[in-house]
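#dry-run=false #mode=assembly
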Amino acid sequence: MPQTHPAPPLDVDVLIVGGGLVGGTLAAALAQDGVSTALIDTEDPATLTAPAHDGRASAIALAGQKVFAGTGIWPHMAGHTQPIEDIRVSDGPSLLFLHYDHRQIGTEPLGHMAENRIIREAIHARLKELEAAGKPLAWLAPARVAEIRREAGGARARLDDGRTLTARLVVAADGRGSPTRTAAGIGVRKYDYHQTGIVLTIGHEKPHQGCAFEHFLPAGPFAVLPLPDDPTEGHRSSLVWTERSRLAPAILKLPDDAFQAELESRIGDFLGAVRPLGPRFGYPLSLQHAAAYHARRLVLVGDAAHGMHPIAGQGMNMGLRDIAALAQVVVDSHRLGLDVGGAQVITDYVRWRRFDNMLMLAVTDGLNRLFSNDMALLRTARDLGMAAVDKWPDLKRLFMRHAMGQTGTLPRLMRG
Amino acid sequence: MSAISTASPEETAKFAAMADSWWDPEGKFKPLHKFNPLRIGYVRDRLAEHFGRTDRLEGETPFEGLRLLDVGCGGGLIAEPMARLGFDVTAIDAGEKNVKIAALHAEQSGVKVDYRHCLPEDLAEEGKTYDVVLILEVVEHVADLAHFLQSVGRMVRPGGALIAATLNRTAKSLVMAKFGAEYVVRWLPRGTHDWRKFVKPSELTDHMRHAGLTPGEVKGMTYHPFADSWEMTGDLSMNYIMFATKP
Ligand SMILES: Cc1cc2nc3c(=O)[nH]c(=O)nc-3n(C[C@H](O)[C@H](O)[C@H](O)COP(=O)(O)OP(=O)(O)OC[C@H]3O[C@@H](n4cnc5c(N)ncnc54)[C@H](O)[C@@H]3O)c2cc1C
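#status=ok
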């Protein structure tokens, strides 16, 4: 029998491990600018977009939308997003309202809601488009990394199926549990909220008029976020119901009628009759931050670097900020023929992102602690605080701009 | 033949350590790393214009098919990027150590550069010619500038280009060199930052003309100490870069 020779390694500039919302978008950003990129995910792309895989919807901040636009992903989802015209925050029984209206800072909506499934499909469509246009993109999924060796001059990855790749830079975009981060010996600081995010889509009688509601209940925030109308299901919203983790499994398993009653008691009647559409999902919530964002020839992005409470709808948006910054330093050095995985690129990226992320983690953590609480004193303090924010337009504008992702040094991709 | 193939393993390890320090952006050549993107950007854009490759800059290897000689290559900080941009690169240095360090680093990084330990006159003797010759931060180290430019000038093919960068001999650069502004002193090997050897733009253009070259644009490269950043300017009093062609 003739001897079979192993295929020569696939050589790329950047190897991205994890093709989720963040890793997939990074692949588009790099490949469209001529940086040769390999994107690996353990899941089949079709699994990632199946209705049972991820029932979440995401609030996409204005800056995040610009990243999707700049990477050519937005046109593939534009028809399926819901502008957020208005955000109303209520604080349980005191019924004090904090009212964010986009007309206070300009004419643009505060953000857009899109189902994660829709965002994933848009990313996949863009990646296929780039492949078809002959851009230097190798999308390998399903595939699993068996081992990555990171050396002075570059990294070499071996896949489970025996294929090998060489790259100047490895990007860990493999989510909260990031095996790539663990293999590199980078620890995480973690704080468990003992809260679970119960997520589902609901149908309702009355239109939401583009308004996002956030009720701060003692167990944690309860958010009703507007989705675009569906031709068959009519008016829809996405729910994120934060519950004590102890109680969450029982709620997730409640029979339909009992679950329905729990829903109604929390939502109230402003949307008319409500009904669940599709399955319920439970996400344990924690705060975590990687001890470092880099090692030799490796950087972390998105949830692999930082996981935060979904209270402010910022997790993916911060991940998009990471990759907009990373894409910029990588593309700039690639255009100069510099080493895209060299120490300079890595330092520039880490300096740019780490502080900004720490700030956001602290803000979302503080919000959750402040609001997931039933103590009378704290309650009064925060009622007064919210009322003050509402009455102080400058402060409110600043808050809103931050929520829209428009503060700090913006990467080119975010400036639109 | 690879420049390191004749070295012993111990020697190779020693050079690997030195390569690490050459290429460490926070290490002893930090000022040079800070400065590098600016000069590479200039070299890339001017050469793309000269060779009509501007529309290819967004692609993988815009300069494919062109031969480039990097004179005084040091650790390869210019040669490697030029090779990645598609040039077929030959890089030479008078320091044997530099050449070994550079060759080792290129091998580790998977970049193809033909490194040689020789002087430009040796190559010129062999009758070699190139589309592009770079003499960046070298003329201030050269003993006989007229002779040096004759040799490098001979190696630019008709229609080709030469780019030179160096430090001007002015009151300002004298003060900087004497009182040790870190960015001037640190990138020059110890004892070689002799202000008297700095070269005025007018002297450089004269030597270029004698070597059969046509000097063109001159730009200043200015350091902003507080922002710790570099910028292309019209101020030639310190670092400057000059573009020349061969008719
Ligand atoms: C309830 C809830 C609501 C949220 N709402 C919002 C919101 O409104 N707005 C917002 O901005 N953010 C929101 N977030 C946060 C957001 O969902 C995450 O920040 C985002 O999904 C992170 O994306 P990622 O690509 O970094 O990681 P992930 O989405 O976790 O993707 C990781 C990918 O890596 C792959 N993978 C894992 N291991 C490997 C391996 N070894 N090899 C190869 N591939 C691997 C996985 O298959 C997956 O595709 C919410 C989060 C929760 C829990």
